Amino acid sequence: MLRKFLFVAFLFSTGALIAPAQDCKLKFSVAYTDGKTIQVGLTPDQKKMWDLDAPKKFKGMCLDDKAPEFIVLWSQDLNGAELAQTSVDHANVLLSTGETPTTTTAQASMTSAYHYVRPSSQVRGKALYYVLDTSKKPYPLIRQGEGYQDVPRDVKTGVDNSVSAADIASTVPDPVEALSNALKWLKKDKKL
What is the pLDDT of residues 72-118, one digit of tens each? Predict the structure, then answer.
């Protein structure tokens, strides 16, 4: 009786190990580049999204760093920073000289201890993704896109802090959204 139970348990366990391999119709790998080096693998947030969404949203797709059919390469970028650099430089000069903006009220004059930096629609942070097909050499780029989140807030900096162009970006890079967008496109394009 124990032998039959162990045999049935063995069949179920090997079936569970084999089943995911049969469901894998598309293998992909994820890599990040900063323009100088490439790091293979998911960020902790991307891994969390993959673990949560893969069984339902990305059925038939498998993460495989050893023999991928496609590579999702991503990086982060800040567009429009050069447009805002003059304002940022002016703000930093004011901050470094100790000048602070003065607001006149009905009662008296007040000096603010903080500067509020408002987002500019001209400056956008984004995570760019590129999908590469590994079946051809060299790997051709077959899709590119982006992922970002809106920034619905003001950045508060102290008088002794400097301001950067990233502080006035109206969007911030979202590597999770970039990966999700790339995988949604792959799923649609490969009809999974």
Answer: 999 987 665 555 555 555 555 655 665 555 444 444 444 444 555 56
**30: number of Cβ within 10 Å:** 26
Which residue type is seen at 177?
A: E
- Give helix then strand counts, H and E, for the chain: 4, 11
Q: What is the pLDDT of residues 154-180, one digit of tens each?
A: 555 544 566 665 666 677 789 999 999
Q: Structure tokens of 102?
A: 């003065």
The predicted pLDDT at position 125 comes to 78
54 φ/ψ angles, rounded to the nearest 5 degrees: -55, -45
**Domain extents in the chain:** 24-99+111-189
Q: Enter the DSSP assignment of 112.
A: -
Q: What's at 95, amino acid-wise?
A: L
Q: Kindly write down the DSSP assignment for every residue of 133-185, as one continuous string.
A: ETTSSSPPEEEEEEEEEE--SPEEEETTS---GGGGBSEEE-HHHHHHHHHHH
In this structure, the number of other CB atoms found within 10 A of the CB of residue 137 comes to 6
Could you give the 3-state DSSP secondary structure of residue 190? coil
pTM of the model: 0.65
